[in-house]
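Protein modeling request. Please complete all fields; requests missing the sequence field cannot be processed.
Requester role: graduate student
Desired output: 3D structure, token encoding
Chains: 1
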Amino acid sequence: MILIISAVVTIPYIYVITKHNLHMLQQNFYNENNRYIKWGMKNTDKVFMYFEIPIILITFFNIFLQKEFLCLINLLYITLFYFVYEGLKREQVKIPLKVTSRVKRLSVTIFILYLIPLILANAFDFGIFMFIYSVMIFINYFVVYISNIINIPIEKYVFHYYKSKAVKKLKLMNNMEVIGITGSYGKTSSKNILKDILSVKFNALATPHNYNTQYGLILTINNYLDKFNDVFIAEMGAFKRGRIKLLCDLVKPKYGIITTIGKAHLDTFGSVSNIQKGKFELIESLPSDGVAILNKDDELQCSYELKNDCQVIWIGIDNKKADIYASDIKMNRDGMNFLVHFKNKKKPVKFHTKLLGKPNIYNILAGIAFGNYLKMTDKELQLGVEKIKPIEHRLELKKLPNYTIIDDAYNSNPVGANMALDVLNLMDGIKVVVTPGMIELGEEQDTLNKEFGEHISKVADLVILVGEKQTKPIYNGLIESGYNPKKIKVINNVKDAFKIIDDKNFKKEAYILLENDLPDIFNEKE
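Delivered output (526 residues):
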């Protein structure tokens, strides 16, 4: 009985730390490419609760003393549960743990692993049982990792079942046009923009949210796609070579769009050349009668030797040799007006959008180019562009009583971050930048963040950096550019940024740029 009571006392604590490690496993793509292990090696303070070591020592000595410290051990676990639970509640959570079927299966395996010592308790005395249990709790990170390995055969079976179902469904919809969209950044924006434009004339479906992996595409096909869809727009993400090809083998696109190629996921791709080749896997998977829409202002797209004879439609802004290009771009807080020039039309066509920023012009041009290829009229294209809805967390304007937020919080990159600063610079009022910096940029991360700081110094009236360690290169870039250190605030929780902003009580109109919001796996503790 005393054995069961002691095991039950530890359950709440095991639950909170297991939930946290499952969350990290999920955010690291269930250890794909060893991401969970790499995260653990870089964040040992988040993996191991070092304050559990005294409990392990107490349980060790308790082996010889037989239940002398039992009440103390139980009391310590109850106390730990309270403090860890309260700490996790206060932690910033960008994307909460999604309790999917996979997470439920993992939870069952983890439960069984923790149950084994209890089942075998009769084989050794109580003191040894408590010691083993305390060690298992301390290494919960590895228990979750081992459970993930144990479940691999099950997950492979589940994956192949749903993949087969998705492939069969696609074969029955052979009259539907499939468009693949990839790029280092701008994929989700381009996907949503294309859907809004094409929906004026067609019944278009785009992958929801950030469903840009094999699992995401399979889920979309099985749960969202139906016989009434004329067009399926598949966003395709990757963090190493070969992944885009896998997605193309699944959905077999006839059309492809590359947004921009740049330094994103550089730490996993290994080089810019690998990023370039990885993105062009989409275009090189298209059939010979397919169509690719490429950006003539992007040197990494222009310089690539395409191993495919499909048709290419070039878009651009700066390069007037493009088949379709934009000019006379005028931007204000209400959106943008611009002209679009078509190679086969004498006069340019005027467009208006509620979106902001040069990257969105490129995304809109890709949508216009594809709509034009599908014989949409100028009026239909104009209506489609006018209808484009602001995209969440991507230069999204949010007007509040005391200031306006420019929300560009989704996964920042060097090009997008600098263009967001250019948008902020156009605003007439006090300019504030709130940022934790950029991540997943490999060896160039510190250099690029320092350059970001140099750019911020030319625009912002106030800078709030989230995470002292993470933002050190930005801080150095600001200071070396002669920026006033009194105008820099360094905090560890983004919520504190709004307290600082509210306390300022700006007398003029203020614009707050939220540039990037680190995933939970990168959060710094106070």
